[in-house]
What does this fold into?
Amino acid sequence: MTIFLLFAAGFLGGMLNSLAGGGSFIMFPALLFAGVPPVLANASNTYACMPGYVSGAIGYWRHIAAHRDKIFIYALLGLVGGYLGAELLMRVSDEQFAVIIPWLMLFAVITYVFGARINRFLASRSQGGRGAKAAGAIGLSLLLLAICVYGGFFNAGLGIILLAWLALAGFEDVHAMNGLKLLVSSVVAVVAVVRFAATGSIAWFEGSAALAGAVVGGFVAAYFAPLVPARVIRGFVIVYGVGLTAYFFWITYF
It folds into this structure.
């Protein structure tokens, strides 16, 4: 029954990731409720999300290749940041991580809710790259590194944060932004999973059940996407995410 529920959670999470994002809001809590310790549940959630990032990046490769001059530095920052984030997670106990879960969830939900507005705000001030040049390439690189550290430590909300960063960096083509977002997410997830696996920090059985569901859910979502209004999906994710965050605050602090 537990494996079935994890597959179902992965299926729903995979559909959400394909349609509107926010799949980690489903899969990470499901792993916790299945009895996986907090740190392992977080690492296993990254493992379950990884194939979706990689396949998505492959699908967007034509748009990514148009910015091949940026691929190396973005991938390098994702590699370093993802490793540092994963290393940080490995140095946190289950008890310590359980205390910060509500705050991480709150940050991810706020980012998800206001991500589009943040993107529009930053894009309106970047003006095709001039804002990025004014901010300075070094500052932007350090910011991306920090975002990748967050992604290696806690996966939820990474995609929305990366989109906001790409808007700040002066990108306007939504397809290029989605492609580069998936590329960086893939690098962060792969290096984090390798780091987690090296120390036996992935619940392979439970994580693989969620992963299988996510893969199937992603394919199903691609078929049904035109039939489901994105606004409805987004509304569901927000209501669910807010309720889940409130639940974690309640069980942790009350």
